[in-house]
Amino acid sequence: MEATRYEQTLAGHDGLAAAMSMASAQARAAVPASTPHEKAIRDIAAGVAAPVLVGYVIWLLRTAQMRRLHRLCFLSRDAQVFSEIATRMAPRLEIQLSMSYVYSSRRTWSLAASDPYGLEKADWLFNSFMRSNAADVCARLGLDIQRYTGTLTAVGASLSPSVRADDPEQNEALRRFVAMPEVAEAMRPRIEQMRQLVRDYAVQEGIASAGTGLVDAGWTGRMIGALHSVLTSADLPVPQTFFWGHEPRASGWTDPEFITAYMYNTVAEPGLQWRVPDVPYIVETFCTADHAIVSGYRSTASGQIEAMLESTNPPVSAWGFDVYRAAIYAFCSALSLTHAGDDIRPVLSSLLYDFWITPTEEEAAAWGAYPYDSDPLGRATLPLARAFTEQELQPLLGGSGTFDQGDRAWLQGSLALSGPAGRQAATVLFPHYSTLGSPATD
Question: 147-162 burial, b for 16+ CB within 10 Å, e for fewer?
Fold first, then answer.
C-alpha cells in the first residue's frame, strides 16, 4: 500500500511522528473501504485526524499525571473521541486516572449561568455558525414561540426563519425581546432550576473538584466560564480545564489559572505558532460523536441527575462514522509509544494545514459532505463544503477582489469542488487565506 502524503510528512521526522506514520499505514490496511468516499474518510482519519487527536490525548494524560489530578471528565460531545482514545492509551502509558464521560452543552450550562434580567447581554442566545432567528432564540430559552409571537412582532422582530441575527435590525429586535419583563419573569424559575441541576450534576459526576480535569476541544471558553460561575456562586470548587485550542473572544471567558491548551492559545502559552486557519472547524469535525445534543437534565426517582438528549442527531452515521472511528481505533492499537514524550505539535500543524488548505478533490468530496453542526440546538447542520457557482466566483476572478464565502465552513474544500474556476480562485486566494476570516463559530 503506497504511503499517503500525510504518512510521508510524518515519516520525515523521528520518534513519535515516525511511529505515527507506521500506525497510519497499518490502520489503513486494517480498515476496509469499499468506495472512494470511504477510502478518503479512512485515509484522512488515519493520517491526519488520528495523529492530531492522539497527540493531544498523550499530552493530556501526561500533564494530568504531572499535576497529580485524580480524575478526567470528558465533556460531550466533542470529547467523546478523546475519551475513547484515552481509555486505550492510559494503560499503555502506565497512567492510572479515573476517567468518565459526562454530559454537557452550551444550551444547558450557558442558560444556568444567565441572568434572567440581563438576557439581552447573553451573546450565546444569538450566535452560532448560523446566527439565530426568532424561533432559535425561543428554543434556546425553552419558550414556546407561539405564546410570544405578539411580543416578538411588537419589538420589531421578524418571525421569518430566514431572517437571522446577523442582520443588525433583527439582532437588536431579538435583544429587545429577551429584555422584556414578561420574558425575564418567565425565565427566572427556569434558569434557577437549570442552575441547581447543573450544580447537582457537577457534584454527582466529580466535576466540582479541584482534583478534576475537564477535557474538551476548545474554543472561546464561554461554556467553561458559565460552569465556573454556576459553581463559584454556590461556593463549590472548580476543576482544571484542558483544551486542544483556546481562542477567547469578547464574548468568551478565560483564566490561565484554570485553562491549559495544547496546540495554541491566543492569550497565553503556547501562543499562535501552530494555529491553522479555521482550525476549530477541522477539529470539531474530527470530534464527531454518535449521540445528539444535551437538551437538559432531570432528577430521577432515585435522586440521580441524568442528562436528556435531543431525539435526533445529524446524520453522521450515513456519512461514514463507523469507518472513521474504526480507523482511529486501529491507529491507536498500532501506535508504538516508545517516544511518547516527543513534542510533535509542529508536524501536527503541518498535517492540518496540508489537508485543510490543499485538499484533493476526492478529500474535499468526502469530508465536505460531513454534516457540520455548530448550533446549540442542532438546527444549523450544513455540509462542511459546498461548491461555488462560476457566477459566485466571477467577481473575484474578474479582478474586483470581492468574495463572499457565505455559510461554507471549509473554504478551500468548497473551491476544490468548484472545477477549474474554483482552482483558479484558490490560487488567487491562497496568499491571503489566513487573513480572509470565516463564518464566525461561537
Answer: ebeeebeebebbeeee
b/e sequence 342-352, b meaning 16+ C-beta within 10 Å:
bebbebbbbbb
Helices (H), 67-167: 80-89, 106-112, 134-141, 149-154
> In this structure, what C-alpha cell is assigned to residue 267?
492569550
d(CA 220, CA 218): 6
pTM tops 0.90, yes or no: yes
**Domain boundaries in the chain?**
5-107+193-355, 119-178, 362-435
Name the pLDDT band for 277 (thresholds 50, 70, 90). confident
For 233-378, where are the alpha helices, taking DSSP H only?
Answer: 279-286, 316-319, 321-334, 345-357, 361-368
| 3-class DSSP state of 438 | coil
CB 203 within 8 A of CB 178: no
pLDDT digits (tens, 9 = 90+) for 1-27: 799 999 999 999 999 999 999 999 999
List, in sequence order, every residue forming a beta bridge with 170; answer none if it has no partner: none
Burial class (CB in 10 A: 0-12, 13-18, 19+), 337: middle
> Across the beta sheet with 98-102, what order do the strands follow?
98-102, 71-75, 212-216, 240-246, 259-265
Please, what's the largest Cα pairwise distance for the chain?
A: 67
